[in-house]
Amino acid sequence: MTPFMKKNALLSFFILIGSVAPAIAQTGSVSGVITDSLTGQPVANLTVFIPSSTFGTITNQKGEYHLGRLNPGDYTLMFRHLSYPTTTRLISVEPGKPVILNLALSEESRKLNEVSIIGRIPDQRLAFHLFKTYFLGDQKEATCILQNPQDLKFYEDGGTLKAVAKNPLIITNRHLGYRITFFLDYFNYVEDKNPDTGLGRNDYFSYGGSALFQDLSVVIPIMTMGWRVARKNEFKGSLKHFLAALYRDQLTKEHYYLRTTFQSPEDLQLAEKRSNAMTKIRWAETDSLFNMDPAIHKSSYLHYYPAEEYPLSQNQITAGLQTGEKKLQAVPSLLVFSDYRKTRDLRDDWISTLRIPEKGIIFDQDGNYRVPEGTLSWINHDNSMQIIRLLPSDYMPKLNENHR
Known about the structure:
Elements: E1 6-7, E2 14-16, E3 28-36, E4 47-49, E5 56-58, E6 64-70, E7 73-81, E8 84-93, E9 99-100, E10 103-105, H1 124-136, E11 144-146, E12 152-157, E13 160-165, E14 169-173, E15 178-192, E16 202-215, H2 224-235, H3 239-247, E17 256-260, H4 265-272, H5 276-283, E18 287-293, E19 298-304, E20 317-319, E21 325-328, E22 334-338, E23 350-355, E24 361-364, E25 369-370, E26 376-380
Parallel strand pairs: 1-18, 3-9, 3-10
Antiparallel strand pairs: 2-26, 3-6, 4-5, 4-7, 7-8, 11-14, 12-13, 13-15, 14-15, 15-16, 17-22, 18-19, 20-21, 21-24, 22-23, 23-26, 24-25
Helix pairs in contact: 4-5
């Protein structure tokens, strides 16, 4: 089997676990006190935030925190401090009903001051260059600047370049107008030194972590107009933009195309119940895309038919329980192609893999969604999730701006 093309992929990803609440006028809040479980003393300077959003704060000297103006819905609230383990809690916000959440953090894991590194120490200048290229997406730091590079440590493990950070990374993104506090869990970069014949060199990267965004428009209002245009452009191809288009039945108008994926000829045969002979014929017509599953950190090729779009039926998209919501039922693992260049060739599109949990998701016209049970996975391939292009999950352009 010779695919038409095996895409050389730069890969980054986030697993989206929580949900972003629907935009409803009446809001709620969450507040509480964080203490040490051993001493009972308040924990100050602990970051409390909704990952990948602009909603966040830091506990005061009394260990107190407060997040207000939260739209009703379910949220994953994260608590991060260098001396304590990362903790998350799922909260449900209702209009006008404050949520009180107090936590006593265990002292058992207060040992993150020094990162234990086992492996060969690489050329630090080259390692940092690769980190800027694939993580920041701006190797010259012209508009996306890491303020504390001294907190990064690089090492090699089994042919993989890895990076860890002993403190949160502070990043100024002048392209989109955000100051980002990024808690880096890991960064991996692999140079494939034995690529398939004729396909050129393959470089793969992945990273994981959680980000808190601060909008710089209030600080530098003169840049607001340019940032608004840049944010609108980067919003296209995002999960929220895709779901907003799906809600309005405008996937084609917004230049989205879906393909179902197969891991192997056996998967194809099982899905279509074809004979071995037919499977081989059909397999010769497939294309493929490099993929890394962030849940198991395992790479593979995803195969698909370029000529056969996957249609979403009316049975898969139904009305939600609340007015203004829809439900997307479980679908096969899908490749979502965002044709930002508006060409017929899928290979120059922005590509994401979408996996919906068994019981589906609830979403609204603005692309906000809730996950009743399980995990929604949205994996961005190529370089579409580098920090320079990353928007907070609560970003939404004005209603008349979110269309091409």
